[in-house]
From TrEMBL:
Keywords assigned: Kelch repeat, Repeat
Name this polypeptide is given: Kelch-like 35
Presence of the UniProt keyword Repeat in the record: yes
Gene for this chain: Klhl35
Gene3D superfamilies linked: Kelch-type beta propeller (2.120.10.80)
Keyword Flavoprotein: no
Coiled-coil spans in chain: none
Length: 118
């Protein structure tokens, strides 16, 4: 179980990445995210965690096996909040709820393994 980003009791966004090991019943900190953000969505596809949302204009990747962050894609506009599907699929689909200043709905679909636009 991974908790990525969020905000503390003071309302300040964080780049913390926390991992829970149920066998050890213990939390640990992993490499910090390359962003400090909340209201994120995450999905796992082929052992990689994809993170989007929080008004970011990028899709980030996190590899739990190597504890390394990367960038998968630059989006045409910031994603406020997203719905994603990935379990059992070979694609990550991002459906963006537009911000009040963004007049259109953004729909993106990326293929695995390196998320190329379809």
């Amino acid at each position: 179980l991974y908790v990525i980003g969020g905000a503390g009791h003071d309302g300040v966004n964080t780049d913390k990445v926390q991992c829970f090991d149920p066998k050890e019943d213990q939390w640990s900190l992993r490499s910090p995210a390359p962003f400090s953000q909340r209201c994120l969505e995450a999905v796992t596809l082929e052992d990689i965690i994809y993170v989007v949302g929080g008004l970011m204009s990028k899709i980030f990747t996190y590899d739990p096996g190597t504890d390394v962050w990367g960038e998968a894609a630059v989006l045409p506009s910031p994603v406020v909040s997203a719905g994603e599907k990935g379990r059992g699929l070979a694609k990550v689909q991002v459906l963006n709820t537009p911000a009040p200043t963004v007049p259109c709905l953004t729909y993106l679909c990326f293929s695995s393994p390196r998320l190329q636009k379809n």
